[in-house]
Amino acid sequence: MLSALLKDQTRQPHQSLEKLLIGRLKDIRSKADYGSVLRLFYGFIAPLERKISRINIESILSDCFERRKALSLLNDMEVLQSGTYELEQCYLLPDIRNTSDALGALYVLEGSTLGGQLISKMIKGRLEVPDTTLTYFNSYGDNTPVMWSRFRQVLDNTPAIDHKEVIKSATDTFETFKNWIARHEQKEL
Q1: Which of 3, 33, 110, 187 is the most buried (most CB within 10 A)?
Q2: Is the pLDDT of residue 153 over 50?
């Protein structure tokens, strides 16, 4: 099964990104800190979603439009009043040339919805913010396990995808996101 292979083959870059993100999230002490994290996520996710949208994956992932999250990040920033002006965006993104590449990148984005539920609870415990500022981290709400399961089924049941390309794209996405966050950690020191 490709989903199990992906989990195994991307374990190291996934853990490396997760470690960096957890440190960043634990540093949230104010709405301004939270807004900074939302802007950081938007700066990576919005351009990556644009690249993915250039690949026609609707035939294998019929709910692909429902899975876009950049607008949720914008909504959260607006409700938080953290400002959506001058949003820096990442341009050193993984190559997304075909369906396999798109699915590899989506593996990272969709997998993050599982951790997003924990993150939304953590933020809610640290800050007095309305749920309307947590729509990104709580993307699918109670439907998160179902949405993840559907995505895994697509990975495991689509015969015409190159497993090596999917794994490479997922690995590149984890590493690129980590580099994006690390670069901003350096700027803030």
Answers
A1: 110
A2: yes
